[in-house]
Predict the structure.
Amino acid sequence: MKFFIDTANLDQIREANDLGILDGVTTNPSLMAREGIRGEENIAKHYKTISDLVKGDVSAEVISTDFEGIVAEGKKLAAINPNIVVKVPMIKDGIKALKWFSDHHIKTNCTLVFSAGQAILAAKAGANYVSPFIGRIDDSSWDGVELIEQIANIYAIQGFETEILAASIRNSLHIVRCAEAGADVCTCPLEPILGLLKHPLTDIGLAKFLADAKGK
Ligand code: G3P
């Protein structure tokens, strides 16, 4: 399973990248706004910085909702760097645009996916990634990870090549459960990634080893 970081914060992207296990970055308009990045030019500059920093795929989201607008915006975003992936919302014109991008060899990530039916449509349209929002599903008292499992089964049975990118990850257990459920990628904030490191027995064991090594 690949690890993407879900942020537009450069310090956090650098920290995750320095660990050597980062495969890519996802962003969305809310994450850009959180960093105070606004306006087409500044947003494009920020995507350039992120996509220069990281080797893997960097998802950059369109804000248009009509086919022509999505295509025009997506073409500009894709021209920033070869590792930019155009993130398109799961709407009717989004599906049409995903097919257009697929026919024109522009990589895409279909976002705001909350059902298996939507995931089937995204795959049919040729999306490279599909992003089910695990945490937001859990927030509405459904099991987000079950959706990952369902999509993984459908894609395997049907031979769809779209990669399942588990998004809206809230904790380290989500990462583990998504790995079990067959997600191809997990995108999450830095905290849940670092949370995977933690185990009290590791700390106790290391303290003992170090004390024994010093003969204490
Ligand atoms: O990038 C999309 C997704 O990861 C959003 O997460 O925490 O806002 O539900 P969240």
About this structure: The chain has a mean pLDDT of 97.
